[in-house]
Write a structure and sequence with these properties.
By secondary structure, this protein is of the alpha/beta class. The protein is built from 14 helices and 16 strands. The strands form four sheets. A seven-stranded parallel β-sheet has the order 10-9-11-8-7-12-13, sandwiched between helices. A four-stranded parallel β-sheet has the order 5-4-3-6, sandwiched between helices. The model has no long low-confidence stretch (mean pLDDT about 95).
Amino acid sequence: MTTLMEPSVEETIVSMARRARRAAAALARSTADRRAEALRHVAEAIEAREDEIVAANALDLAAADEAGVSGAMRNRLELDRDGVARLATAIREVADQPDPLGAVEDEQVRPNGLRVARMRIPLGVVAMIYESRPNVTSDAAALCLKAGNAVVLRGGSEAIHSNRAIAEAIREGLADSDLPEDAVQLVPVADREAIDVLLRQEESIDLVIPRGGEGLIRAVTEKSRIPVLQHYKGVCHVYVDESAEPRRAVEIVHNAKVQRPGVCNAAETLLVHEGVASGLLPEIARRLVADGVELRGCERSRGILVDEGIEITPAEEDDWRAEYLDLTLAVRVVPDLEGALDHIATYGSSHTEAIVTDDDEAARTFVGAVQSSTVLVNASTRFADGGELGLGAEIGISTSKLHAFGPMGANELTTRKFVVFGEGQIRS
């Protein structure tokens, strides 16, 4: 009697990657209308499966509670009915965006009469490796489909039930459309070997996007044979300038740190101009401490706050480079704008920086000098997000400058090829 053996992890991943490559070829020939219609079917399927998705998420939350996961990490994992509705809304927003493909750009006529231009095309197959947040499953799928790419998704084990339920809904929506179901595939196993095998599929996969902690991203970068889009840390700064309006400064700093501390665009370091530190820093600190923020400060900031009866521990060198992802904030008093810029250049991670100022010249200097992927004037760092910046959703935030920089939407999941129109020219 012959026993059918289950495919190995390697066989499973290799098969998925090859099917994704075939699906990508079909997507490259699809029209904008077909892709948009498919996304609407996907949104409808997610709404129809709301009960299953919420129930699956409850299993993940129960496992997290049993493991002692709490605070910001648990918040990333949670997906209630309103959250499912937001998934569908984000997919429809992506569907309604202008088509990123096919546009002929930068056309020029050469002296020999050749018309040379560039055309936007899909990247091909994207592998998405991510932790915790189940919304990444639908966001990544929607953006890849919009840009004509197939995607292989490998979520973390902590969200495996949620990810499976969302992926099943996506494939159900694709089954009702003209696009291949294999355009979106979720790795079905939590085995870490699956990641290693996935990162060796350079013949089938064109780009790897890791989204999670610094450890995950460094591990993926070290092992991958495929180009990797990197985002190591979000060490985001808010600089309060000498001219800052006090109430505005308090509100922006508080929102940047407290509104959702466990995400990469939350503020991790506060820089305050010495000209306003004595009067304004205590007001900012009281608001933060009242909401549970632990402050770690330089000698000058501690001198100011301790005199006001506000608790602040001494900052160490590592605090200036820390991505806390929690209710902890490093605080430094700087002599001026140049001091703030020097600090950001030394300790920043090229993610997001904000200035609070009423001085137009200071704002222009800050925007021009800071080399991070998102720079804000008089607004919270929390706006460094694809949805908030008009992308509908984001597949990640790149802090490396090659190919894409900052929040990545559908346009950033394309590349450009040369197209040349002639009338019989030959080269002599």
